[in-house]
């Protein structure tokens, strides 16, 4: 084989590219965005010296850098290394930036934590450090605090107040004043919600002292003061002239001293609320209107008045009033101006002599009812004639002032009955509506008073829509009316009063009216519960201030009939029945309060048995046609505890 000739070298690809001239940089224009000129190599580096030719071979150009991928416009180019920044100059007196705000934030966070942590722990409780009269209730719930106050303050509220009045000491017990701890109002002053910063600080660093809120039942305290006044009052005595037989006796006026009721109520109430053990009350002087001079003048007139008999004449008839009869109906009493005037009771004097002047058959008669065979029977009214009692009283007083005129002509007048037959017959009094009976021990002074009141009320008629008043119907219980002193509870105290026992008769009437379904108007319960009276259905009366009133709210009249024995009294109401039955709903006893025991050395001590106090509700329910038709509002009765009193003088 023929030897091949030499192979020509391939064409140099760079041979057709003109090399840049020495000292000049290539000018590259129109590069795509993001393409740096650095891809051509360092631009400020000097061109390398051409290598010397070896064997006549030209020097090759420098080796190109490795190819780089062409960056795309939508492809993020990795950031190059950050350009170096010059270091800040050191300033030794300037604090570093950001340190102060950081410290403030830390302080605020710590402060909030110091408040919120204990505040959350105290929330819903009485703040720590809270005390009521030295009793610590801090950290307790409201219910726990209430229980603690009731338990620990109870003994403190049992402390009585001693009243110095009129030269004597009287003890008023808390139950007599109606003193009670108002736990709700007391705890209302204590903080128990979510505490504020100031409250948290106070709880952590100090104490809060609160005073207990106490209440006084002003109505109950007023009744207690009434009982106190019955003991210490010395009413002024007016001068008067009265007869003992035929002999006139002068009673000179006397100064008195009275307890200011309202001031006493305020002072005693304040003493309990401020924990005062002793207070002094003063009696205000009370002067009589009459004078000794007017009494002496009336005494001389009284001697002349009974020096001879009086003769009453009419139409040829005559009747004689003996000096004794005159004396029995004559008295000299003080008038509004302080003078003493003669008062002659003509009706009393005529009872024994009117028959000689006017026959009984001619006198008027009121229409009324008699109960015959358990049925009311109408007794018709009758017109009549009789002595004019009012005119006779005036004529006798004038005659007694004359030294010679001892004959008094009387005047007869047509006398109409106070209640006509028509008024009574159309009132629907036809059947028994209700009745009630209470018992009492025989032969005591109060028994006589009760029977006398029953007699005064027997046959009393209450017209439709008329309000009945016990004090008006029965009248004032006085010695002249035949009443005597007997024990009666007045303002929580058992005292002797003229007409004592009236509350029992009023209670008897009250229960008859209650069962009859009539509307109450004015009613005061007794201070203590008496076991032989219906619970929550008793009535206390005391002339003239404390009355019992009820309204005849029916369309018919109500006839009151009474009967009494040595040991009981009964009240029966006659009218037209409106309801089939009237029932009483009585609640359970609540707020039971125990009674205290004491020994009394006072003269006239009246022993009593202890009786617990309590509160009870009574509701009256009305039925008609077998169904309930209405019911009254609930009646709340609060009985106070009655002390057990033992008399040290041997009376009990």
From TrEMBL:
Region described as Disordered: 1-95
Q: Where are the transmembrane segments?
A: 98-117
| Extent of Pro residues compositional bias | 78-89
Keywords from UniProt, A to Z, are: Membrane, Transmembrane, Transmembrane helix
Give residue ranges for domain YoaR-like putative peptidoglycan binding: 301-402
Write the protein's name: VanW family protein
Source organism of the structure: Nonomuraea longicatena
């Amino acid at each position: 084989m023929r030897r091949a000739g030499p192979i020509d070298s391939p064409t140099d690809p760079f041979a057709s590219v003109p090399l840049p001239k020495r000292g000049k940089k290539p000018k590259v224009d129109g590069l795509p965005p993001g393409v740096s000129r650095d891809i051509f190599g360092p631009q400020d580096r000097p061109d390398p010296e051409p290598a010397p030719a070896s064997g006549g071979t030209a020097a090759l150009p420098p080796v190109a850098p490795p190819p780089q991928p062409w960056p795309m416009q939508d492809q993020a180019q990795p950031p190059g290394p950050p350009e170096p920044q010059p270091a800040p100059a050191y300033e030794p007196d300037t604090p570093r930036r950001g340190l102060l705000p950081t410290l403030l934030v830390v302080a605020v966070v710590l402060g909030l934590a110091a408040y919120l942590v204990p505040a959350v722990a105290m929330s819903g409780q009485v703040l720590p450090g809270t005390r009521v009269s030295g009793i610590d209730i801090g950290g307790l719930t409201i219910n726990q605090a209430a229980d603690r106050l009731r338990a620990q303050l109870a003994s403190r509220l049992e402390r009585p107040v001693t009243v110095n009045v009129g030269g004597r000491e009287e003890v008023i017990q808390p139950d007599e004043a109606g003193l009670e701890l108002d736990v709700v109002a007391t705890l209302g002053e204590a903080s128990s919600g979510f505490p504020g910063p100031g409250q948290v600080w106070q709880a952590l660093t100090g104490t809060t002292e609160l005073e207990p809120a106490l209440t006084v039942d002003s109505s109950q305290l007023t009744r207690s003061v009434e009982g106190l006044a019955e003991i210490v009052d010395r009413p002024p005595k007016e001068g008067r002239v009265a007869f003992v037989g035929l002999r006139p006796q002068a009673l000179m006026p006397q100064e008195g001293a009275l307890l200011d009721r309202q001031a006493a109520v305020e002072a005693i109430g304040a003493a309990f609320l401020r924990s005062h053990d002793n207070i002094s009350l003063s009696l205000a002087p009370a002067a009589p209107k009459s004078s000794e001079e007017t009494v002496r003048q009336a005494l001389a007139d009284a001697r002349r008045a009974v020096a001879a008999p009086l003769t009453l004449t009419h139409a040829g008839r005559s009747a004689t009033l003996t000096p004794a009869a005159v004396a029995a109906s004559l008295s000299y009493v003080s008038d509004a101006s302080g003078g003493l005037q003669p008062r002659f009771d003509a009706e009393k004097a005529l009872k024994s002599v009117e028959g000689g002047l006017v026959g009984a058959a001619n006198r008027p008669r009121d229409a009324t009812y008699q109960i015959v065979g358990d049925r009311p029977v109408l007794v018709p009214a009758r017109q009549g004639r009789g002595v004019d009692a009012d005119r006779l009283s005036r004529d006798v007083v004038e005659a007694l002032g004359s030294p010679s005129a001892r004959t008094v002509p009387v005047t007869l007048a047509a006398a109409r009955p106070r209640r006509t037959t028509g008024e009574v017959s159309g009132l629907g009094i036809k059947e028994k509506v209700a009745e009630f009976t209470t018992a009492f021990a025989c032969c005591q002074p109060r028994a006589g008073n009760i029977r006398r009141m029953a007699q005064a009320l027997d046959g009393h008629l209450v017209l439709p829509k008329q309000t009945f008043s016990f004090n008006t119907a029965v009248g004032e219980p006085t010695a002249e009316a035949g009443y005597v002193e007997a024990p009666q509870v007045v303002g929580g105290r058992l005292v002797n009063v003229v007409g004592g026992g009236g509350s029992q008769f009023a209670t008897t009437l009250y229960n008859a009216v209650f069962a009859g379904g009539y509307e109450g108007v004015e009613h005061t319960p007794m201070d203590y519960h008496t076991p032989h009276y219906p619970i929550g259905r008793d009535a206390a009366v005391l002339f003239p201030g404390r009355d019992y009133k009820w309204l005849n709210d029916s369309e018919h009249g109500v006839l009151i009939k009474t009967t009494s024995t040595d040991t009981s009294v009964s009240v029966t109401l006659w009218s037209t029945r409106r309801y089939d039955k009237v029932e009483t709903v009585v609640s359970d006893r609540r707020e039971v309060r125990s009674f205290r025991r004491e020994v009394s050395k006072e003269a006239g001590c009246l022993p009593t048995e202890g009786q617990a106090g309590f509160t009870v509700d009574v509701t009256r329910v009305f039925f008609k046609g077998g169904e309930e038709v209405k019911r009254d509002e609930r009646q709340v009765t609060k009985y106070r505890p009655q002390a057990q009193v033992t008399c040290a003088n041997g009376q009990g």
